[in-house]
Write a structure and sequence with these properties.
5-stranded mixed β-sheet; 3-stranded mixed β-sheet
């Protein structure tokens, strides 16, 4: 037979275990469709698009675009600023790319087709926990 103190201690332990499990099994992050219904294209101000949005680890950026006209290149800050295409992190070309944000910090994306980046088709976001 358990004493009242033992029972209470067991209840606290179970509560802690369930709390930790729920944190570890955190639900999926949010999906952010870049450019909303306009998608990933020229003539969209992506700086304005990011205003008021929060990006967290586990969230997905969804890039929708015409594969004959655009792509998505993940780059570093220098390539973002210069629209450099030589040293990229990742290149996406499906027209419906879902990129999971797995790290805290700044992330940069450009369209590497023609002069699209130079004409503003680029996105910079800050990912937090």
């Amino acid at each position: 037979m358990l004493h009242q103190g033992s029972w209470f201690s067991s209840l606290i332990t179970l509560s802690v275990i369930f709390s930790l499990l729920s944190l570890m099994l955190k639900s999926e992050g949010a999906n952010h469709t870049v450019g909303d219904s306009s998608g990933w294209q020229l003539m969209t101000n992506y700086t304005n698009w990011t205003q008021g949005r929060e990006f967290h680890v586990g969230d997905a950026l969804v890039f929708n675009y015409n594969i004959d006209e655009h792509n998505v290149m993940q780059v570093n800050s220098t390539a973002y600023a210069d629209c450099g295409r030589d040293n990229y992190i990742s290149l996406f070309t499906t027209g419906n790319d879902s990129i999971i944000m797995s790290e805290v910090g700044e992330h940069w994306f450009i369209c590497a087709m023609y002069d699209h980046c130079e004409n503003g088709q680029k996105l910079s976001i800050n990912v937090t926990l």
